[in-house]
Amino acid sequence: MTNIIIIGLLISIIYFEITEISPGGIIVPGLMVLYVNQIDRMIYTVIIALFSYLVVKWASRYFIIFGRRRFVLLIVVSLALNFILQLLLKSFSISMLNISIIGYTLAGLIANDFYKQGIKKTLPSLVIVVGIIELIAIVVQYWG
């Protein structure tokens, strides 16, 4: 587990140095690889990040939100959206889905990169780096 996170950090940094595009944060791809067999959680986390980005972008029309304030607000909004969605799923007896977010801050980190560089750059980069890390993990597991 620790090896995958370290490999994820290295691949993320290398990818950023080559492309100058952050794949959702330096730590995010390594942590996402740990849940690659739970694709529903990965998609749910990205959806929460997308909605967090949209909420904060809308709020920035009416409030001064930038820098650290925006970063913290994105994390708080992603946590709140996850909490609200979990309550709604339970209240409508859709708890059989049992979907939850990966980590507490991952969606906020992804949303922050959505805000900084756009969804069209961040999302494909995240998919590419997670794929590369997963391939490396498979090779290491096979040869290890």
What features would you highlight for this structure?
144 residues, mainly alpha, 6 helices, 0% strand, flat
Describe the structure.
The protein is mainly alpha-helical and 144 residues long. It has one domain. It contains 6 helices and no strands. Helix 3 packs across helix 4 and helix 3 crosses helix 5. The protein is flat.
In short:
This protein is an all-alpha fold. It contains six helices and no strands.
Structural class: mainly alpha
By DSSP, the count of extended strands is 0
Q: What sort of overall outline do the alpha carbons produce when their principal axes are compared?
A: flat
- Mean pLDDT metric: 91
Total of helices = 6
Uncertain ranges: none
Return Rg in Å. 16 Å
Give the N-to-C terminal Cα separation.
14 Å
Query: DSSP strand (E) fraction?
Result: under 5%
**Helical residue percent?**
over 70%
Order of helices and strands: HHHHHH
The total domain count is 1
Largest sheet properties:
none
Topology of this protein?
Elements: H1 2-19, H2 28-33, H3 39-59, H4 67-91, H5 106-117, H6 119-143
Helix pairs in contact: 1-6, 3-4, 3-5, 4-5, 5-6
